[in-house]
Amino acid sequence: MQQLSDISFSFLATQTCTHCELPVTCGPVYVVNDLSILCGRCRMSAKDHYRNFAYEGLASTFLYPCKNWRNNCSVKLRWNDSLDHEYECNYVGCCTFLCSHPGAFFKGQRDLPRDEIRLVYVPDNLLEYLECVICRGYLNSSPVYIQSNGQNVCHRCIYANGNPPNCRRNDAYENFSQIFLFPCTYRNRGCKERLQFGKAVWNHESKCEYGPNLPQNSTFAERAELVRNSLRPQQDAHRLSSRQRQPQPAHVHSSNNNERSENSEPQDPVVRPKEKGLIRTHTGHIWATITPSKALFAPPDDDRPDVNQEILKSIAKKQVRQIRRADDIGQWDENGGKNWDNESVSTSTSYSYKTSGHSTPEPLDSSRRLYNPPDDYQRDYPTRPDSRESGYNTGLIGNGQLQGQYPILMPHHLSNGYDSPRRISSRDTSQRESVKGNGLLISELKLRQDLIKRTHSIKGDRDAHSPYKQNNNFDNIIEPNRHIR
């Protein structure tokens, strides 16, 4: 069992509860809004947050006197034992017939002695309670801030990131830690130094030989700034010239070959490679790897390829393909139209077509499947042919066929999965083709009118108000356009 020492009376007088004004000898201890603390006797007045676990851990390493010590009670109590003892203490001031020692009521009270405050080591089993919640470093210097869940933020994170939100300054812990000797942050790397809470530890960590190595001519401010920035994202560090010892950007290159050969030497001779071997620590010897040039609390190196670089490469490839595709299409003519005279387009699918030198496409291959109309369709329209070839080669006008024209598709054609041929448009259509297309349009309109009449004649007499009865003068409508045929 760990041997506990008596706490200094002079120091204990400064650690009092803000509510009962008695020495804090029991827990739980809470931090209130005015940054003072409440002891375990007044825990009913505190809320269940901002509990000071770090303070309780350090306070558990001492023996405390009874609150009736002024009345000659000489009992030494452990942390949290004062509540049970004070309830049964025989030296409480009261009437003489109720006291076990009546003479104690008439004796004078003693004053707290002015003894010397001694420094003690922080026990190893308490170091896990004295770590920062962010960087896992020791809470060995001020300022220290406490969160609502009882976890603390150290001075390194505060200097690097500013004051944390929704936190309170842990003044009670900072005052109580003044009598303790904390280990160095690089304790796990082999440093055995133990220094008093405050600037002494901060100064040692910036110069510790187990920490990140710095140039010999660097000042303490530069060393402290490196430790403060250790929690920030690591950026490209400045290299040091072997001649001038002045910071120079890493991206500057010399124009002369001689200067370039001189700069090719190692820029920072202080940096040493990794060292492997046995390391002596407080728990024994361990086999580990030490990186002296690594910054304090720096994140591990990531050897994986940068995802952003891969995305940029893929985007560049797509842009190259788009440029090539645009170059293969051709040039625009003077009138703003596309010049197809020198173009040659081909595909590898079964419905492929090729154009070369003309804007009018050639008929598609007739090897495509034939269209067989259903039985009811042949029964209703006995004058139509039994079958027909590919729609682009043949068309129908009445009972005859018109070669080289687009097919006339009915709704039941599309329901049977008939694939309509692809139409290719061009801006250089000649006048002859335009007249031919107008004739095709007139023929298609005539055929649709004929089909509508036949369909309604089979179903029965049309209604008197039917719109089809008013459109029987179709020949008169298209009469002005007959000259274009």
UniProtKB/TrEMBL annotation:
List all Basic and acidic residues biased stretches. Answer: 376-389
Its Gene Ontology molecular function terms? ubiquitin conjugating enzyme binding; ubiquitin protein ligase activity
* Gene Ontology CC entries for this record: cytoplasm
Region Disordered: start-end pairs: 231-272, 328-394, 458-485
GO BP, one example? proteasome-mediated ubiquitin-dependent protein catabolic process
Tell me where the signal peptide lies. Answer: none
Q: Which InterPro entries match?
A: SINA-like_animal (IPR004162), Znf_RING/FYVE/PHD (IPR013083)
Q: Where is the composition biased (Low complexity)?
A: 344-360
Q: What is this protein called?
A: TRAF-type domain-containing protein
Taxonomic source organism: Dendroctonus ponderosae
